[in-house]
């Protein structure tokens, strides 16, 4: 096997994984581009490259190239993980475009789950109602911000304390 074929295999798998992450959205119009899903696909592709290279080391003759692929993949995985966890590249519109499919998943699972307890069904129906409303709000905001972005003189808001410890207090 050639290294070009290995790279093509990893790149193709990464693109496919990106697409697969949208299969659990409720509606096709809820599929919006998500930077977070891009970074997750890159993370998965990089980890897959390390695993596959380790399993197929004997198929590739150059130890130097094999080590470079593994080290490079670990660096790419670390960078992608940092981008996912930090959300450094995610602005207002990018955030909402990522949240629409996320909310769509909640609609799908709440609607299609085989729920028997009426309390759970009531909660699921409330989740559906809230998610549908919020998707509508986000789509309106996306359209508005894409027409006229926030003025550059608007003050930046301080980050919210959203740690798990803060939310349980």
TrEMBL record:
Domain DUF305: from-to ranges: 92-153
Disordered as annotated region, ranges: 144-169
Composition bias, Polar residues: 160-169
Key words, A-Z: Membrane, Transmembrane, Transmembrane helix
Query: Do you know which InterPro entries this protein is assigned to?
Result: DUF305_CopM-like, Ferritin-like
Q: Does the keyword Transmembrane helix apply?
A: yes
Q: Where does the chain cross the membrane?
A: 6-27, 39-61, 67-84
Under which name does UniProt file this protein?
A: DUF305 domain-containing protein
Q: Which organism is it from?
A: Roseicella aquatilis
